[in-house]
Amino acid sequence: GNTACGEIGSGRFADTSFIVSEIQKTLHNKLNEKKGISDKSLQTPLDGIRNLITAGPTNEPIDPVRFITNRSSGKMGYSLAEAAIDAGAIVTLITGPVDIEPPMKCNTIPVETAKEMHEAVMHHVNKKDIYIGTAAVSDYRPARKNETKLKKDDKGSPLILELVENQDILKSVSELDERPFVVGFAAETNDLIKNAKTKFKNKGLDLIVANDVSDKSIGFDSDDNAVTLITKRRNLAIEKESKRKIAKKIIKLIEHGTQMQFNFKKSDHNLITLRKEFKQNLFELKNKSSIYQY
Question: 106 catalytic, yes or no?
Answer without folding.
Answer: no
